[in-house]
Amino acid sequence: MELALWAVRGCLLLVFTRSVTGKVRSRAAFAEFTGTVRSLPPARRLSVPLPARTLAVLVVTAEAALVPALALPGVLAPPAVLVAGLGIAAVLLAAFTALAADAARRGSRVPCRCFGRTTTPLGAVHAVRNSVLLAVAVTGLVAVAVTGRSPEAGDPMAGDPVAVLTALLGGAVLGLLVTALDDLAALFRPLPRKESAP
Q: Do 70 and 90 touch, CB atoms closer than 8 A?
């Protein structure tokens, strides 16, 4: 289970790092993300209405906080930070899944700005992607519960270092595939037909 936890960390670390950098890489990117937040009906229906920019800042801040929470436990932070990070990741991913499922149900054309620029509308593919990531975060929490401790309680590379690095890199590869999902899905969409001249 300890290797599964390293794979979970690798996956979520890459996903949230790419998510944050995609949203804050430029003012234009953050403005596009804020526009997406503004366009989502659940953001407009909050019982305590928050301006879209404030909500966008809160999302990016929570995602940015996850990066050290997933990277540092056992190295520069206590293992409990990892458990908190996995819990926050699970809550965020559950909310993102619900938003994507709602957008798919409504047939929304709001672009997904999860990892920065894209014109792909938020929808069912994103709900499935976020569900998989939610399952990854929950797997991490289960791995901590089953082992009864975080594997980094002592040596940050406890166990076989090659196995730990392999699990971490394997998780990162999964995270990379998940963050490139829009591009991968586009490979399988039919090309638009060109009208031929008579």
A: no
User: Can you spell out the DSSP letters for the chain?
Assistant: -HHHHHHHHHHHHHHHHHHHHHHHSSHHHHHHHHHHHHH-HHHHT-SS---HHHHHHHHHHHHHHHHHHHH-BTTTB-THHHHHHHHHHHHHHHHHHHHHHHHHHHT--PBP-TTS---PBSSHHHHHHHHHHHHHHHHHHHHHHHHSS-TTSS-TT-S-HHHHHHHHHHHHHHHHHHHTHHHHHHHTSPPPPPPPP-
* pTM, rounded to two decimals: 0.84
For residue 154, pLDDT over 50 is answered with no
* Cα distance between residue 9 and residue 152, in whole Å: 12
pLDDT tens profile 157-166: 456 889 889 9
CA distance 94 to 116: 20
Mean pLDDT, the chain, integer = 84
In single-letter form, the type of residue at position 88 comes to I
Whether the Cβ atoms of residue 120 and residue 128 lie closer than 8 Å to each other: no
**Residue written as tokens 């929808």?**
123
| Torsion on CA atoms 49, 54, 55, 59, rounded to nearest 10 | -160
